[in-house]
From TrEMBL:
One Pfam family of this chain: Pyr_redox_3
Keyword Oxidoreductase among record annotations: yes
InterPro entries found in the cross-reference section: Auxin_biosynth/cation_transpt, FAD/NAD-bd_sf
Gene3D superfamilies recorded: FAD/NAD(P)-binding domain (3.50.50.60)
Lineage, highest ranks first: Bacteria, Bacillati, Actinomycetota, Actinomycetes, Streptosporangiales
The name this protein goes by in its record: Cation diffusion facilitator CzcD-associated flavoprotein CzcO
GO molecular function: flavin adenine dinucleotide binding; monooxygenase activity
């Protein structure tokens, strides 16, 4: 078993930012990533997702991406950037290595059990993102549906849906983008729990800060975090205007149940409305990937892990970066620096104020 100061789990924006600051601090660490290649979750995102108007990946610390190519898939552009980043700073990457569990080790250390052996660490940065835990809401009759159900995480190309009626569920950016893209080649119905928000004008920094503060308060209280991205609404692009004019963005409230041939709304007087469908696309978001931390018993009765700054309140050796308020590319950058400051103090290193 290898002994080390710090294990970082995950090599997305959060893991790489943490690795950069750990490296600068001269700490002995390793980054374990279960993905096959550099790129974090970006490597798995669908080819039509580009770094266009709605997607902004902040530079990692110490190496700007340069002018992002907005014509090629972000899965390629970001993966190339992350690969260059790992090379430039000679980061100690190990992949593909999946962490199965983190548990109490000996002598106050953490035992990190993986598909490539065990590590014994004095501190841990958990930067595992959300991509591997797509959230599927449950609706009555869901298992009886005769068509195809898929989640954003499974989406590859709209061509798969040609000639089929697609129900898109969800009000976030992915839902809007996929809906507009699919509606160009086939018929769609849009269903959301809450009315979606479209914004005129520039990105609202105030709304973004308020969303981060709200999520921060939730994780400090040990509640499931909720999302910080998307709180500022979807920009009114020419494509959105065209989709609105074409009726593509006319949304229906959430249906009540699913039947073999489609989705159904029941009204108060016992009548029902059926939309027949071949496909239900659940663009319903993701949840934090933290099940491997279960042996540490960090979960609160409220269902989340209590986190202050980046530190798990119940175990200060454990830092969650890219979790809750830092689950954005800019938030992950800052959280990486904060986590490393805390870890240096924990390990007894002098840290400038
Ligand atoms: P990830 O990029 O998900 O990286 C986590 C890594 O951990 C992965 O490589 C994974 O394989 C690895 N891992 C997970 N579990 C284990 C394990 N047990 N053992 C080993 N390795 C493990 N944010 C923005 O700021 N701007 C955007 O434009 C933007 N666009 C988005 C578009 C989509 C479709 C989605 C879903 C999210 C978007 N986000 C965006 C949010 C975005 O996910 C985060 O900002 C950020 O990229 C997440 O980085 P991360 O490092 O936390 O996680």
């Amino acid at each position: 078993m290898a002994e080390i100061d710090v294990v970082v789990i995950g090599a997305g924006q959060a893991g790489l930012s943490s690795a950069y600051f750990l490296s600068r601090a001269g700490l002995d660490f390793v980054v374990l990533d279960r993905s096959p290649r550099p790129g974090g979750a970006w490597q798995f995102r669908w080819p039509s997702l580009t770094l266009g108007a709605t997607h902004r990946v902040h530079d990692l610390p110490g190496l700007p991406m340069g002018v992002a190519d907005t014509t090629r898939p972000s899965s390629e552009v970001v993966s190339e950037y992350f690969a260059a980043y790992e090379r430039t700073f000679d980061l100690p990457m190990r992949r593909p290595v999946a962490v199965r569990a983190v548990r109490e080790g000996e002598g106050g250390r953490l035992l990190v059990e993986t598909t490539a052996g065990d590590w014994s660490a004095r501190a841990l940065v958990n930067a595992t993102g959300t991509w591997d835990r797509p959230f599927w809401p449950r609706y009555p009759g869901q298992e009886t549906f005769l068509g195809r159900q898929l989640h954003t995480a499974d989406y590859v190309t709209r061509e798969e849906f040609a000639g089929r009626h697609v129900v898109v569920v969800g009000a976030g950016a992915s839902a809007v983008q996929l809906l507009m893209e699919i509606a160009e080649i086939t018929t769609t119905t849009w269903v959301t729990r809450r009315p979606p928000v479209f914004r005129e004008g520039p990105f609202d920094e105030g709304a973004a800060r308020a969303a981060v503060a709200r999520v921060d308060a939730r994780v400090r209280a040990g509640l499931p975090p909720g999302s910080v991205v998307g709180a500022t609404g979807y920009p009114m692009t020419p494509q959105v205007r065209a989709a609105m004019a074409a009726g593509v963005l006319d949304r229906l409230p959430m249906f009540d149940r699913i039947v073999p041939e489609g989705v159904v709304w029941d009204d108060a007087v016992g009548q029902r409305r059926l939309v027949t469908a071949d496909v239900i696309l659940w663009a319903t978001g993701f949840r934090p990937v933290v099940t491997h931390l279960a042996p540490l018993r960090l979960r609160e009765p409220g269902g989340g892990i209590r986190v202050e700054d980046t530190r798990a309140v119940l175990d200060p050796r454990v830092h969650l970066v890219g979790y809750g308020p830092s689950a954005s590319t800019i938030g992950a950058n800052r959280a990486g620096r904060t986590a490393v400051q805390h870890i240096r103090r924990l390990l007894g290193e002098p840290v400038a104020a």
